[in-house]
């Protein structure tokens, strides 16, 4: 055990003696200026540590986890990380209509109400650009099913909490009973 501790301490000391060369690391942030399909330009702060050191820019429209962090504005409250609405709509407009409907359903399942509303608005705008009905993907029955499942999960969670609290109360009562029995003896 002492040898292991000695090796760890020695390693820490040596690592502090050799400065870490971060010059070859990519910058964590960079300003990207991109252009939408209709020629509008926009800028945003590209955050490299969110997406494996810059292998993916927002304007590549991959609709992956990085894209949704930036598009949904859930990454940061700071507006410098946000892309304009027209950029989100433009990425959606590059998708086929059926894919937009899949995204429509996924967004509602994945995000809270405000974010889902925002992203669905961008999907509707993309459908309009494609000369489709803006509510083509709307299916209130699917949304109701998602809402019902969320409520069921909340109820299950509350039931689990109540079970744990009841078990804890039984354990406390048992301990108090034992203490009283010991005091009486």
Quick one: biggest sheet?
A: 2 strands, antiparallel
Helix content: 55-70%
Query: Number of DSSP strands?
Result: 2
Q: How many separate structural domains?
A: 2
Low-confidence stretches: none
Strand order of the largest sheet: 1-2
- β-sheet strand percentage: 5-15%
The residue-averaged pLDDT reads 80
Task: Work out the helix count.
Answer: 6
Query: If you compute it from the alpha carbons, what radius of gyration comes out, rounded to the nearest whole angstrom?
Result: 27 Å
- Intertermini distance: 46 Å
Order of helices and strands: HEEHHHHH
Shape: flat
Protein architecture, described:
With about 180 residues, the protein is mainly α. It folds into two domains: about 30-140, no CATH class; about 140-180. Helices cover about 60% and strands about 10% of the residues. It has helices at about 1-15, 65-70, 85-95, 95-110, 115-130, 140-185; strands at about 30-35, 40-45. Strands 1-2 form a two-stranded antiparallel ribbon. The longest helix is centred in the last third of the chain and has 45 residues, at about 140-185. The two termini are about 45 Å apart. The mean pLDDT is about 80.
How would the blueprint of this fold be written?
Blueprint: H1 2-17, E1 29-35, E2 41-47, H2 65-71, H3 85-93, H4 97-110, H5 113-129, H6 140-184
Antiparallel strand pairs: 1-2
Helix pairs in contact: 3-5, 4-5
């Amino acid at each position: 055990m002492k040898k292991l501790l000695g090796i760890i301490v020695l390693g820490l000391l040596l690592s502090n003696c050799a400065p870490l060369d971060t010059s070859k690391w990519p910058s964590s942030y960079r300003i990207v200026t991109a252009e939408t399909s209709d020629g509008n330009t926009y800028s945003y702060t590209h955050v490299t540590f969110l997406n494996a050191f810059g292998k993916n820019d927002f304007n590549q429209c991959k609709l992956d986890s990085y894209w949704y962090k930036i598009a949904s504005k859930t990454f940061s409250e700071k507006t410098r990380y946000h892309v304009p609405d027209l950029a989100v709509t433009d990425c959606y407009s590059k998708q086929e209509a059926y894919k937009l409907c899949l995204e429509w359903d996924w967004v509602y399942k994945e995000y809270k109400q405000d974010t889902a509303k925002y992203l669905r608005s961008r999907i509707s705008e993309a459908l309009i650009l494609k000369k489709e009905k803006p509510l083509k993907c709307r299916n209130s029955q699917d949304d109701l099913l998602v809402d019902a499942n969320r409520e069921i999960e909340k109820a299950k969670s509350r039931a689990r909490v109540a079970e744990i609290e009841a078990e804890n109360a039984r354990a406390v009562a048992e301990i108090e009973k034992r203490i009283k029995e010991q005091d009486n003896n």
